[in-house]
Design brief:
Elements (H helix, E strand, L loop, with lengths): L1 H5 L3 H14 L8 E4 L7 E5 L4 E4 L12 E4 L10 E6 L7 E5 L5 E7 L20 E9 L4 E9 L4 E6 L5 E6 L12 E10 L5 E10 L8 H23 L4
Antiparallel strand pairs: 1-13, 2-5, 3-4, 4-7, 5-6, 6-13, 7-12, 8-11, 8-13, 9-10, 9-12
Helix pairs in contact: 2-3
Amino acid sequence: MKLLLSRISRSSLFAVAAWFVAATVTSTAQAALIDNFDNGGGSVTAAAAGSDTDSSGVFAGILGGTRQLDIPGANPVAGALSLSMDANPGATGRLFFSLDGGTTGSAKITWDAAGAGLPAATDLTDAGASTFISFDIISIDSGSVDLFVSVTDQSNVVGTKLLSGAGAGTQQFPFASFTGTPNFADVKSIVLEIRGISAGSDLVLDQIFSSGEITNVPEPSTYVLGIFGFVGMMGLAVIRRRRPAA
């Protein structure tokens, strides 16, 4: 075995080792669920500088029990067609943001217990274990949709963070990166503004939650491919070892 391994280049072994290190990282479980969009609904549509608002009603799986959807007049829809945002349409468990072609605009979601403010000691940090607000994005027109998050604590201190150029997958806002210093362990309200900065852009969002840092965990098939690749390298070494010298 030692002789066989000596036939494999050091660079190949390092590459395999690096792959296994990258492939065996684990993700951190969510601490506080903000919204999984599995319950309730809400739908807003506006065109030609219009506005609209809707509420989910009271349901589990939503921080504070309700979500408020708005297309605010302060960020009007520009273009002849429309902007729409729908929470859990057809019981899909997703949030859909969509701009028609030739149209730009923004919409926002507010979690503040229907204007009453979240209960005191609403803790996104899980007693210090969580340091991020995380978004599971199903699909997005990267570079065309920005996410802007605003967190207000019970003392009315506001923190904001803009995420531009996000792609599909889990995207994270570190608490420490927010402009402003709200107490994330005593949150009064959370607002997500989705900004469609390019005409015809779309976003599909699965859930929002607080967590520690998350790393991607490969599917089991990825491990299988890695193992076959390593075995293949071993086989190549055996062939080279048995091949007579020219």
